[in-house]
Amino acid sequence: MKLGKWSAGILLGFALAGLALAQGGKLEIFSWWTTGGEAAGLFKLFELYKQKHPGVEIINAAVAGGAGSNAKAVLKTRMLGGDPPDSFQVHMGHELIDTWVTTGFMEPLDQLYKEYGWEKVFPKGVLALLKWNGHYWSVPANIHRANVLWYNKAIFEKYGLKPPKTFDEFFAIAEKLKKDGIIPLALGDNGIWASTHLFETVLIGTLGPEGYKGLWTGQTDWRGPGVKKALETFARMLDYVNPDHAARSWDQANDLIIQGKAAMYIHGDWVNADYLAKKFSGYGWAPAPGNYGVYDALSDTFGLPKKAPHRQEAIWWLELVGSKEGQEAFNPLKGSICARTDCDPKLFNPYLQWAMQQWKTDTIVPSLAHGAAAKESWLAAINDTMSLFVTNKNVAQAQNMLAQACVDAGVCTR
Ligand code: GAL
Predict the structure, then answer these.
(1) What is the pLDDT of residues 254-307, one digit of tens each?
(2) Domain residue limits at 246
(3) Does residue 374 fall inside a structural domain?
(4) Which atom of ligand 1 is nearest to the CA of 334?
(5) If you measure from the C-alpha of residue 268 to the centroid of ligand 1, how many angstroms do you get, rounded to a whole number?
(6) Distance (Å, rounded) from C-alpha 352 to C-alpha 345?
């Protein structure tokens, strides 16, 4: 049979469309990366993915709200309703294992770890937190540091200040600045996690790394003098924060530093990405008071839900997230260091180069506010305690609630 010119054209059209479809597909990525620096990192990964898999349509299912304060609830509804995204952001440690792995929602990723030799490129401590029951359950994109003191350089220079190493030094500086009408410490806890985050650095600074780690294993007494002291110090710190803290998000709190209204901000290093996105370079950094030599760590990872609608596309995503190319492109924009140990430091700004060094030498402790130290229900109970505490500053009540939360988590006996 002889085809006419038009029919041949139509057939060719169908064939090409079929080819595009074969290469096509979709990829839905769920995260809470919506602010400047967060989105910049995410979009960079999307860009690389599209170069490798041009036919795949990427659906960005990000839900705004720092630390996943809104996203986690949306994710839960979707997962329980049998409607998982193809891959989702989840913190290394308890958040990953207790919430999604032991409950049977994820696929093991051992094959990827084997194929790409990831056991050789991720640090042992990181691998241990991604493993459960002999299998790997997610791919780490980065390592963030939670216990950083960011400061406005111009203010520090004007007053001849050095970053405070101790709480005493912090309060001396704070008092001086407050008298002069400058907000000593920025805070944005419209998501209460930001107060938990600040408190976690005070716990580390008060108890030391071993004492802090002991809180999560039952070794350190939540009813003891250390936690009491930490609560008292935290209450005192709250006297120096911006009065509108409950109305601000973490990045809006950072704006106070950028605008020169506040001098210091104790927060994670996604702040560094926020500065980059907002083109602000007048900042300095140091470990949070009392936190010298300690790296309060967390990691954003991505996993493969069992019922991922586009499984192959999700596997390609995970390959990219774990790759050297992916990590070297993503992390300089995200304000984090690579989870991999073979990234080129020259690609990173001075803060991140500093963080890379510290990561090698500091004592590493798991972040509470970002899913590494405690399971979600325990963290939720601590968040509830913080909600009350930032308004009433009742040390005895908060300590009691914290101690009870540890008992409820099944870790403490009293
Ligand atoms: C953390 C997350 C970071 C950063 C931050 C603020 O929980 O690990 O990647 O995005 O929240 O939203």
Answers:
(1) 999 999 999 999 999 999 999 999 999 999 999 999 999 999 999 999 999 999
(2) 145-297+366-408
(3) yes
(4) 9
(5) 8
(6) 8
